[in-house]
Please model this.
Amino acid sequence: MDEERNSDEENVFINRGQAKQLIESAIRTTTQQDLKLIAEIEVTVRKVLREELRDIGLRVGTEDQQEEVREDFRFLRLWRRNVNGIALKIGWLFIAAGVGGIIWIFTQGLNFWNQRPPT
Model:
């Protein structure tokens, strides 16, 4: 059982040289039909992606349109970061106000305690 396991493990692991040889042989055996199939798959994937992007309202037909979409997303990212920054600052303002209120109540308590008449 252990011998079978070791032989399976040896078969699974290959070194970089062997991997490179396998890839090169696979590339050499690629036929013209395989290249056509790859090209058809690429065209189909592009077509499907464009259709899906068009369905959500993004039209990316030409290079100019793609650049406009990139700029739109850059604007949205900048806007989101600015809103997050403002929200963070407002959050810290509330935290500081809460801590300040606690300190104020504590000092008022100390002042009241020091000003009471002795018994």
Observations:
- Helices lie at 2-12, 16-28, 32-55, 63-115.
